[in-house]
Design brief:
globular, 2 domains
Length: 251
């Protein structure tokens, strides 16, 4: 009994003292409904490094960001700034998740804005982008656990890496693109026919479905589908456990 009292007392003292220090790099922000709303100058790319939150990019009549995090208090160490046309957002790595569905970062940009050179590093959470926003060239997303859903892309050189979750991408992919997933399914709705790519699709434990047709494999488990076209854009999709589904983009 005495040990529990000491532990609870220590936790209360730790919380009262505060663990983080404030470092919010944009002076113009408001506190509204327990979340922060920050108006931004126009930006062309996003650099994000966060621990636990759902990230959503959507259209608006002005550029801004709104976030609500479980550790979002006056003692936070959150970096949010517009630096040379790039939105930079970083949150503490050692935060504790209270309720992940209530933790969010909403990024608002003008409709049909093309965002190039975006790098998103996430530990836990979902990433989604509206079909009114165009994800552009050199897109890099690294997520430990969570779903990734991009509804409109025109991207040269995509690099997506995830441990657990679902990955869905719709649009035009070209250049050299790599999608790697340990556990989950990958669904691609491509503007160009798969035959125009130099592609390598591999699932160690799962199926590959190309335009509704399931690929056959000599292996007892898993599937491999590779092209003999070495001149097209490179598309590598590797899944350890899960399916790969390729379809034509419906416009």
């Amino acid at each position: 009994m005495f040990k529990w009292i000491v532990i609870i007392g220590s936790m209360c003292l730790f919380s009262a003292l505060g663990y983080y220090t404030l470092n919010t790099s944009i002076s113009s922000h408001n506190i509204c409904n327990n979340s922060r709303c920050i108006d931004l100058e126009e930006f062309n790319s996003i650099q994000m490094d966060i621990d636990a939150a759902n990230v959503n990019i959507q259209e608006s009549d002005k550029f801004k960001i709104e976030y609500n995090l479980s550790f979002s208090s006056p003692s936070d160490n959150i970096i949010c700034k517009n630096e040379e046309g790039a939105l930079i957002f970083k949150s503490p790595k050692n935060s504790r998740v209270v309720n992940n569905k209530d933790q969010y970062i909403n990024i608002f940009v003008s409709p049909y804005k093309k965002l190039n050179d975006c790098t998103i590093n996430m530990n836990v959470g979902n990433f989604s982008c509206s079909d009114k926003i165009l994800m552009g060239d050199n897109l890099k997303i690294k997520c430990n656990t969570g779903n990734i859903n991009i509804l409109n892309c025109d991207s040269e050189n995509i690099n997506i890496e995830s441990n657990v979750g679902e990955i869905g991408i719709s649009g035009n992919i070209y250049g050299d693109s790599v999608i790697s997933l340990k556990t989950g399914n990958v669904a691609l709705n491509l503007l160009k026919p798969l035959q125009e790519y130099s592609y390598s699709l591999k699932s160690n434990l799962g199926n590959i479905i190309s335009y509704g047709k399931k690929s056959k494999s000599d292996n007892l488990v898993g599937a491999i589908l590779e092209s003999d076209n070495f001149d097209g854009s490179k598309l590598d999709v590797h899944v350890n456990t899960g399916n790969i589904d390729i379809n034509k983009l419906r416009i």
